[in-house]
Write a structure and sequence with these properties.
four-stranded parallel β-sheet
């Protein structure tokens, strides 16, 4: 018995006007997609809506807000971690590390590199202060 081979889609489409692209206008570069890149993805993003919903579900829609006071405070507050302090100051011979503009947070395993030094800072987290004092590093909080 002879097995019938199914013709491929391309050969079946030959001779049809639009070759499977719907309207004649549709198969014409970026213009049919609504622009290049993220263009056309605004509030009325009809042409890219399915793509947006699949790959960027949080792109459209409402989000919360943050008050201007809080935003201003967050921008003003400078934060530095203990790892950053160690990487910046472990080679310096000065005994006082002046971080009077920063709030110090976090813990570090490389604390031995700055043992015997004194840290002057604007603010420090409770756990960081306990950790530093336990390892023999004096902490001075300077209110500016």
């Amino acid at each position: 018995m002879k097995i019938k081979r199914k013709r491929n889609k391309r050969s079946r489409i030959r001779g049809r006007r639009t070759c499977g692209y719907g309207s004649r206008k549709k198969h014409r570069g970026k213009g049919s997609k609504g622009g290049k890149g993220m263009a056309g993805t605004g509030k009325r993003a009809g042409q890219k809506l399915t793509w947006l919903k699949k790959y960027m579900p949080d792109y459209l829609g409402k989000r919360g807000f943050i008050s201007h006071k809080k935003l201003k405070r967050l921008k003003q507050e400078k934060i530095i971690t203990l790892d950053e302090i160690i990487s910046r100051f472990y080679m310096k011979e000065e005994n006082i590390i002046d971080l009077s503009e920063y709030k110090v947070i976090g813990k570090s395993e490389k604390i031995d590199l700055i043992k015997g030094k004194e840290i002057v800072c604007k603010d420090i987290s409770k756990s960081s202060k306990e950790f530093l004092e336990k390892n023999g590093i004096k902490v001075v909080i300077k209110n500016v």
